[in-house]
Specification:
Distance between the termini: 56 Å
Oligomer: single chain
Structural class: mainly alpha
Number of helices: 8
Shape: flat
Strand content: under 5%
Number of domains: 1
């Protein structure tokens, strides 16, 4: 079971990492359009729509990745004080009541939203139209990835309720926790303060 859970974690992670490159493409596209518009005097009517689509794809495809990393917003003020089995029971209840119906509805409706757009070869409404249906495909696709990762999280909740501890996750780059870093290298604030006087001369200027 753990291998299956980690395999889905890896899938969500790799997809998140892949589509994270959309922010690079978006940055390049915006920069080129600014240059073309204000320096060359040749704006492109389709560029704004393309930028919105790229951002939308980036935002949607981050859902499964963020869930795999347990990174969605939670009321940790109270949640952190609960026993692990209580946390898992609460998560399981919320997944069943809110997550599954909402994400399933998004995926189901998104598929028909995409197929209707594909059937008519829908395009954007501007002077230089571009196809809209490829973008709409990512609605059910992102929903399916999020739904799959949600099923894995439900399995983790059940395992935690039975065993009393959370199962491991696929690891990725995370924000540095300064306190944890200090503990790892066995450095205290007093040690930093003691070294600081050798770094900063009298008067507090470096």
């Amino acid at each position: 079971m753990q291998k299956v859970l980690l395999a889905v974690d890896r899938l969500s992670t790799r997809l998140g990492q892949l589509f994270a490159w959309a922010i690079v493409l978006l940055t390049v596209a915006i920069s080129l359009e600014v240059f073309s518009r204000y320096v060359l005097g040749k704006p492109h009517g389709w560029m704004l729509d393309a930028q919105i689509m790229m951002y939308g794809v980036l935002f949607m495809m981050a859902g499964g990745y963020t869930l795999a990393k347990n990174g969605h917003v939670r009321g940790d003020v109270l949640y952190g004080f609960f026993r692990l089995r209580t946390q898992a029971s609460l998560d399981l209840t919320l997944y069943i009541i809110f997550f599954l119906p909402g994400v399933f509805a998004m995926t189901w409706a998104g598929w028909f939203y995409f197929t209707d757009s594909l059937a008519i070869r829908e395009q954007t409404f501007n002077a230089d139209p571009i196809p809209l249906y490829p973008f709409k495909f990512f609605i059910p696709f992102a929903g399916a990835v999020l739904l799959l990762q949600g099923l894995v999280e439900i399995a983790r909740c059940i395992i935690c309720i039975r065993e009393g501890q959370w199962s491991s996750r696929e690891q990725d780059v995370e924000e540095v926790d300064v306190d944890k870093l200090k503990a790892m290298v066995h450095v205290k604030d007093e040690d930093i303060a003691a070294l600081d006087k050798y770094v900063r001369p009298e008067g507090g200027k470096t």
